[in-house]
Amino acid sequence: xxxxxxxxxxxxxxxxxxxxxxDGFSMRALARAVGVTAPALxxxxxxxxxxxxxxxxxxxxxxxxxxxxxxSERTPHDRxxxxxxxxxxxxxxxxxxxxxxxxxxxxxxxxVLPEEIEGHACAVEQFxxxxxxxxxxxxxxxxxxxxxxxxxxxxxxxxxxxxxxLEEKGIDSEEKFRDLLERSTxxxxxxxxxxxxxxxxxxxxxxxxA
Amino acid sequence: xxxxxxxxxxxxxxxxxxxxxxDGFSMRALARAVGVTAPALxxxxxxxxxxxxxxxxxxxxxxxxxxxxxxSERTPHDRxxxxxxxxxxxxxxxxxxxxxxxxxxxxxxxxVLPEEIEGHACAVEQFxxxxxxxxxxxxxxxxxxxxxxxxxxxxxxxxxxxxxxLEEKGIDSEEKFRDLLERSTxxxxxxxxxxxxxxxxxxxxxxxxA
DNA sequence: GTCTATAATCCGATAGAC
DNA sequence: GTCTATCGGATTATAGAC
Lengths: 210, 210
Description:
The structure is a homodimer.
Chain A (H helix, E strand, L loop, with lengths): L1 H23 L2 H8 L3 H4 L6 H21 L7 H18 L1 H7 L13 H23 L8 H17 L11 H17 L6 H5 L9
Helix pairs in contact in A: 1-2, 1-4, 4-5, 4-6, 4-7, 5-6, 5-7, 5-8, 8-9
The structure holds a DNA duplex.
């Protein structure tokens, strides 16, 4: 039963953290939300900072679980597209936890993040690197450099959607967003440029000829 | 003289905001920086919240100023690339101000954002729409739908860089980031796919043939 | 318009009873 | 494991003298 209370604290803490930020987050308000008194929280977490670090760890754990599902796909391209879908699925299913992964550093406290969390972050990046690398090997992607471009495109779309910046363009439901993500990813892979694009970028960027 | 003092407060406030972020910002620290005492600030701003709203307005003003510089370029494509550069330039020069433009509204204080700020946000989106539209008209971009893809790609890259997620890939300076942004944008316009891409996306996505 | 002084509130964390 | 009580400190904001 002890871990059940811990879980309840952690859930409320995640919500409060994303609403109030690191400094705005208060152990007292958390205690009120959970329905206990403040000192009781210190039976489960050594300090405010430690508690918040656990939230970040949980976020990475859930994201990783979703990503690794893509490994059951059969081709590099399917695993790569599956990874993007899993990434977005995690973000839409856990919007607050997703926000945690990209919160401004100023809201993550003064101290440095524990090594365990840094490890989780590296693992996610490595996962995407691996997906891209095997796509390059099979000729589906141009080169390893596209990892940044694709991650940026995916994270950017998710981020804009979750903050309502795509509503003016008619993207007002998860279904429409998933459709946009699929079509936008395909377009990015094929090129956003129109018929006149080659003339514009072909002669002043050596990367185009490589 | 009265508005001059106000300006001095606002400048220091912006600076402190850039250093400490939304939560770390304190009226007392601001008073110390300006060289007056805290109560004096309340002669010029009704509350901390009102003062911070003015800072958000300042953020949009700086972003817009950077964006509009791109209008002096001579072709739609140059104006569009210039807009992306200006967007990133603002973000790198004012990282904390950039963050606030994408923070959930719940973290911007209790009340609703002033209408003036909402107007600024819409103006920025309209600006990007216009840049894409004239690129479509001149055949440099495929269609208006790429606005989301390009904004997402740019915002995503900036966001990943500012949170240190690109350091493992050797992007550890603003100069390297600007170079990555240029190359990644060009690649996205031309397509990230390799020689085998058409076979993968050509038959199960009708958008490819359009 | 700025100051000193202060009210009122909130915070993280701990001690010790139960 | 949770409680009451409390320390030491921070904050926003106000009152009233000058």
